[in-house]
Amino acid sequence: MMQADDFGFGTQIRKSPYFDATVRWGAQGFSVYNHMYIPRDFGDPEQNFWNLVNAAILCDVAVERQVEITGPDAAKFTQMLTCRDLSKMAVGQCKYILITNADGGILNDPILLRLAENHFWISLADSDILLWAQGLAVNSGLDVTITEPDVSPLQLQGPKSGEIMQELFGESIMDLRYYWLREVDLDGIPLIISRTGWSSELGYEIYLRDGSQGDALWERIMAVGMPFGLKPGHTSSIRRIEGGMLSYHADADINTNPYELGLDRLVNLDMEADFIGKAALRRIQAQGASRKQIGLIIDGPRLTGPNTTFWPINLGGETIGKVTSAVYSPRLGANIALAMVSAEHANIGAEVEVVTNSGPSRATVVERPFYDPKKKIAAA
Fold first, then answer.
1. Closest among 173, 214, 158 to 190, alpha carbons compared
2. Axis-axis angle for helices 214-225, 161-169 (nearest 10)
3. Which of 57, 132, 257, 313 has the smallest set of CB atoms within 10 Å of its CB?
């Protein structure tokens, strides 16, 4: 059996408050995300997928570090960070946002939580937004304080997650709407609960506000959840690709703009507020994006795991783009992928060639998401 000390790159990689618990519960491999270990292996990834879609899984996602913005100008500063209009965002609401740089490139695609009038958390994908935000604040002339608080999220995801939450927090938790949050206390453990997650399934994120209680919280949720089929797990590449959910550094990076991803709805160029990248995004919108994200079904033998390199996409002997995320979906019985191609080749039904690890394969451009395109499952 693995011991917690069997994993180690030295003290520069941080351990989450749930690290020891995940090793006890069978985590066999980790990767690094936001300078912290994240469990990536609890055995067969297909079994992890079925555990998620049939019952529920509990995932240590403490790597989703929070950037906390407070102070009299917190709302104004937070709007400066994102191209999404926040003017109607209520206290207690969450929003999926894009943080862009001066060229309109995406630096992060986090969830924003509004805890109070002048209190925001940015729940990060994998990039150093704490430093970006602190740097912008220095010369902004705005009265804000930007810190990384002691906050560590768990994800409880899957169709049984609502019943488990009810068992933990009582009937009233069922009133929590999709993309809203609530402050709760679980027998002295201070938490924020939100109806969000990285699975496209019904799910919740449980934000622990006291790292010393990580072990107790993990064990409590597992004990309550086991009669409902809850299993320890890791975020599912299969399910998130089925749902067309982005993975930062793979499907988007600093050189990707919102229009290439079809995320125009997250860009409001008409709002009065200025935000970083507004002029660049106005230019890109006027010219039209030169690349577009597409979905692909890849023929050939089933993929044995997600891609670890960007696979070239060819047409007529020319490279027209790259596969960014690919995996075999056991539910769909197909190799599915998210890809970025030249805009003129982003045509549904078109056939292209993908050079996978095992050689060239034929692929067909399809709509994405691949499953539950209206997000009815997660929003139910």
1. 214
2. 120
3. 132
Domains and CATH numbers, the chain: 4-65+151-241 (3.30.1360.120), 72-137+257-286 (3.30.70.1400)
Could you give the CA distance from residue 158 to residue 288 in angstroms, rounded to a whole number?
Answer: 38
Distance CA 335, CA 352 (A): 14
Q: In this structure, what DSSP letter does residue 366 have?
A: E
Q: Which residue is associated with the tokens 């993309």? A: 179
Tell me: pLDDT of 2 over 70: no
Count Cβ atoms within 10 A of the Cβ of residue 256 and give its class: 0-12 exposed, 13-18 middle, 19 or more buried: buried
Taking 3-state DSSP, the helix, strand and coil percentages for the chain, each rounded to the nearest 5, stand at 25, 35, 40
Give the whole-angstrom CA distance, residue 204 versus residue 207. Answer: 10
The rounded distance, in Å, linking the Cα atoms of 166 and 160 is 10
Query: What is the pLDDT, as a whole number, of residue 305?
Result: 85
pLDDT tens-digit readout, 347-357: 999 999 999 98
Confidence of residue 120 (pLDDT cuts 50, 70, 90): very high
**Dist CA 275 CA 79 (whole Å):** 7
**What's the mean pLDDT in 76-105?**
98
